[in-house]
Design goal:
Elements (H helix, E strand, L loop, with lengths): L1 E4 L6 H8 L12 E5 L15 H9 L15 E7 L9 H15 L9 E9 L2 E10 L10 H16 L17 H9 L6 H13 L5 H10 L3 E6 L5 E7 L13 E2 H4 L5 H8 L3 H10 L12 H21 L2 H21 L2 H14 L15 H13 L6 H27 L3 H34 L3 H14 L4 H6 L3 H13 L4 H11 L8 H12 L42
Antiparallel strand pairs: 1-3, 2-4, 3-5, 4-5, 6-7, 7-8
């Protein structure tokens, strides 16, 4: 059950016209009162002899207790309370009780006999609107400070008592939602979403991997945003606002939003924290990090994705083993990886990656302060993704994209587990939701490369296949039989053979890949090990020749592509490991 405190207003009658009207899409059905401050307020919805003007006059009578110069300009308080989609339809009596408990909890009508005048209007099955005048019967102003948090707390109690869907409690770190006026404006102008949400996504993408104010503002300008900077007399930059060029107010002026109103971590001081390089944190992180083989000095989307996969793997170790501040920094930087990946990936994965990035945004903030500096590897990886440009959806680009999405899925699940252990309900739910979108994106990206790897594995010489099977039984004796029964075993066999031919010790690689994280709860062990081995041995994600891969577009190849996809586990289980 979601209560929402709307922006205060000055026109009681105007709000009543909306509540008792047909709605923007004629969605309001049978508007009527379910409760009021005295239980006897006239109802223009059910009583034809009563007008909305009569109800407005009753609600605003306490204003006459104050001199004209002392009356509040914004005296209309408006709160909506909405049930979850899967909740049962509540009766008018139940909604009336919810309204009374809400105004009591928020301080609008605390039950002392002199509260504000209010009414609750129901014009749909799943929600009510409460409208109140912010002057008490004794002429004083109500104590409704932090009314949103008070309403949230009361709704959590109501959910338990009525057996309704229990919403994860918030902690004040969520981005500000678009107002009803902003949503209605977007609908009128044919926008897919409000300007605030579009600006938030654009600014987050501009932040991803940026290393200076100049780069940040250059990216905002390149994205087509209007920028207004707040500068002190000394010349120091204090803050910024952004606007969409075609989002205008009634005076045909651009509507600007400060970074802090888009999201708490998009204010200029918070963005600057990402750029600060702590030498002490960097030294500590380097000393704790296992030495990694040097990657080849090449550039391009595929290489950027390889480096991002390696940085993501290191982030997972820090989330598992580091302190809370370092882990929070990794989770926040993971959002930048997803923003960069969504911006640069091919069309067939972009939509789901964008949903993943938008969903993970909520998981990137909590009251655990991120210790910046520990996250520089992930932030550098995000920068590399941006500067390497768009990746193709096939060949090595497509395969390394699948490799990175696989790691990003794992990172989202690790973030969900970390948040859940600290009782960050909304963040854990957001991370799991992002993982679901990453799973879909991975299936789209991995189809071609995994089918090709399986095809090559199925055509290995019998003695080579036996050699890899013997190795598997030697290194993973308790899991070998299960692995060989999996559809992904041929892909793992050919990966082990490629590692041997590239000069690596396949046994050592397999031991390391299996040691990093447990495998017993994985749906497909072979599929997991393929990407770990190819990343760890720096093998090409997809080595394709005319003779060893099925023809592109052949739908009969290797049974079905979908059967070749690695299983990414159960998204709803935050404890499932890869």
């Amino acid at each position: 059950m979601i209560p929402r405190i709307h922006q205060q207003g000055s026109r009681t009658l105007g709000l009543l016209h909306y509540l008792y009207g047909k709605g923007t899409h004629e969605e309001h059905i049978d508007p009527h009162l379910v409760a009021s401050f005295d239980g006897m307020a006239p109802d223009p919805g059910r009583d034809p002899s009563v007008t909305k003007k009569d109800l407005q006059h009753l609600l605003d009578q306490p204003l006459s207790l104050l001199d004209a110069g002392h009356r509040p300009d914004q005296h209309v308080w408006h709160c909506s309370v909405r049930a979850a989609p899967d909740d049962p339809i509540l009766s008018d009596e139940q909604w009336g009780d919810i309204a009374r408990r809400t105004v009591a909890a928020t301080g609008i009508d605390p039950g002392d006999g002199a509260g504000c005048r209010w009414v609750a209007v129901r014009h749909a099955d799943d929600h009510i609107h409460i409208i109140a005048t912010l002057v008490r019967e004794d002429g004083r102003r109500p104590d409704h400070h932090r009314s949103g948090k008070r309403a949230q707390a009361e709704c959590r109690l109501i959910e338990k008592e009525l057996g309704l869907h229990q919403v994860a409690p918030g902690d004040g770190t969520a981005a500000k939602r678009s107002t009803s006026a902003e949503r209605h404006k977007a609908e009128r102008e044919g926008r897919p979403r409000p300007a605030r949400e579009e600006l938030r996504e654009t600014v987050r993408r501009a932040v991803a991997g940026a290393t200076s104010e100049k780069e940040f503002f250059d990216r905002l300008a390149a994205a087509g945003l209007l920028i207004r900077k707040r500068v002190a007399p000394s010349g120091d930059l204090l803050g910024y606002k952004v606007a969409l060029p075609d989002d205008r107010n009634k005076d045909d002026e651009p509507v600007f939003y400060a970074g802090s109103t888009l999201a708490p971590d998009l204010s200029l001081p918070r963005v600057r924290e990402r750029w600060a390089r702590s030498a002490e944190a960097a030294t500590s992180e380097n000393s704790a990090r296992p030495e990694q083989p040097a990657l080849p000095d090449v550039t391009g989307p595929a290489f950027a994705r390889r480096r991002a996969s390696a940085a993501t793997w290191q982030a997972l170790l820090i989330i598992d083993q580091g302190d809370d501040g370092a882990a929070a920094a990794q989770i926040a930087a993971a959002g930048e990886i997803l923003d960069a990946l969504a911006k640069t990936s091919a069309a067939h994965t972009r939509a789901e990656l964008r949903k993943a990035a938008l969903g993970f945004e909520r998981a990137s903030r909590s009251h655990v302060k991120a210790v910046r500096g520990h996250d520089r590897a992930l932030r550098q990886a995000a920068r590399d993704l941006i500067h390497s440009g768009p990746a193709l959806g096939r060949g090595e680009d497509g395969a390394t994209t699948a490799m990175l999405i696989d790691m990003a899925f794992f990172l989202a699940i690790a973030a969900a587990t970390w948040h859940a252990k600290r009782h960050h309900g909304q963040q854990a739910a957001a991370a799991r939701k992002a993982a679901g979108h990453l799973r879909v994106a991975y299936q789209a990206a991995a189809g071609e490369p995994m089918a090709a790897l399986r095809y090559r594995g199925q055509h290995l010489a019998p003695r080579v296949r036996q050699r890899q099977a013997d190795l598997l039984h030697q290194v993973l004796p308790t899991l070998a039989t299960r692995v060989q029964a999996e559809a992904g075993w041929p892909a793992l066999a050919t990966t082990l053979d490629e590692a041997r031919r590239a000069g690596h010790d396949p046994a050592a690689l397999l031991i390391e890949a299996a040691r990093r994280r447990e495998l017993s709860t994985v749906t497909s062990i072979s599929d997991v090990l393929v990407w770990r081995l190819r990343r760890g041995a720096h093998l090409p994600a997809l080595t394709e020749t005319r003779h060893d891969t099925p023809a592109r577009g052949n739908r009969r190849q290797d049974s079905s592509v979908s059967s070749a996809l690695p299983s990414l586990g159960t998204v709803n289980d935050p404890n499932r490991r890869r």
